[in-house]
Amino acid sequence: MLTTTLTLQKDNFSISTDTAKLDIASIHQFLSTKAYWSLNIPKEKVAQSIQNSLCFGVYDNGKQIGFARIISDYTTIAYLGDVYIFEAYRGKGLSKWLMETIMTHPNLKGLRRWILLTGDAHELYRKFGWSEISDPSKWMEIHNKNCYE
Questions:
Q1: Are the CB atoms for 59 and 13 separated by under 8 Å?
Q2: For the whole model, what pTM was predicted?
Q3: Which residues form the signal peptide (predicted)?
Q4: Strands 54-60 and 63-72
């Protein structure tokens, strides 16, 4: 059974898995215009992805400033995606706190495999035990990088 909503507070910042708090417009704005992995993603796709994921919102006095989502069966595997902190809030330890919160979430304990794709945040993820795929010859993909155009 999945754990109910998780909310953590640190000074004026908070992290919550309450989807009712998520600012879909803000998330869409960031993902569609600033995130190299999802440029031009339609708002409906963002909303649907949130509906089908475990989401973590990062807030400054209630204003959303960061986000991450997990796609998982909560038993064997989890995919971490759409992780960001607004540029003005970087360097405050929020991405580390977000990752600590995700990696210790009760529903994500004991998974056999975690996966993610990143073009620029390898050092952040390494701090939490992530490494490059040891045998990439076993992995396959279909990647339609222009699907939102």
A1: yes
A2: 0.93
A3: none
A4: antiparallel
